[in-house]
Amino acid sequence: MAQSERVLDLSGVTVRRGGNQLLDGIDWQVESDQRWVVLGPNGAGKTTLLNLAAARNHPTSGTVQVLGERLGAVDVFELRPLIGLSTTAVAESIPNGEKAFDVVRTAAWGMMGRWREEYDPLDDERAASLLRWLGVSQLADRPYGTLSEGERKRVLIARALMTDPELLLLDEPAAGLDLGAREALVATLSGLARDAAAPSMVLVTHHVEEIPPGFTHALVLSAGAVVAAGPIEEALTSESLSKAFGLPLTLTANGNRYTAIAT
Length: 263
Ligand SMILES: Nc1ncnc2c1ncn2[C@@H]1O[C@H](COP(=O)(O)OP(=O)(O)OP(=O)(O)O)[C@@H](O)[C@H]1O
Description:
alpha/beta; 29% helix; 4-stranded antiparallel beta sheet; Rossmann fold; globular; single chain; binds adenosine-5'-triphosphate
């Protein structure tokens, strides 16, 4: 994309469910050349926010525009193929017996498992090259249920990229990975973040150590409200993290990686 375009535009967004206020007056804009990390404690509303961005949920009040289309005034089934999504809910919907190759390939049809759909050779090539790019092409014929957590995460990111989306949403992609697998995934996502041809990205995480270099912006959430949002070096600070997590934290930047500890 030569020129930056607005891919997400949330204005005064509130989400209420079952008497709970999940999001409270969120204003947030994401441009196509930005890569955002969303941080906050358990229950802050991160997944709720990602589900709005994924056109999987609607706000109770306020407006959400995704890729220039307003939720509530657009057929979400036309919008969803433009959005690559990797979440626990997606991971849990994949049949265990599905081959890794088909986990990726079925995204072309917006399906979770193979049925009677037909694929053209371009779909096959794309699925194979994504598995290769994520370093898991040797697993193409393995049933999804037999993959390790780290292997699954990579296959799910390949699946999220299958439709060549304009927006890529990753919910805790490094959760459950061992140190080596986490570092390898951070490096892969860093490469993607720095690729000008890659989609706009929003990555939800609990841990600053998991922020891939190349991510440009941060949104810090707490109790459904924005604590800080903007360029990562301005929004991600000891102060914003301490406020969000409710304890004194010191954030340290080591080159282009971060650590945070209680002080
Ligand atoms: N359908 C619902 N009805 C009532 N409360 C809900 C509903 N869905 C989510 N919540 C509550 O809304 C809050 C925000 O949930 P959400 O999953 O968005 O948080 P999160 O930041 O992703 O949390 P975590 O880091 O633990 O995954 C939580 O307190 C959750 O219990």
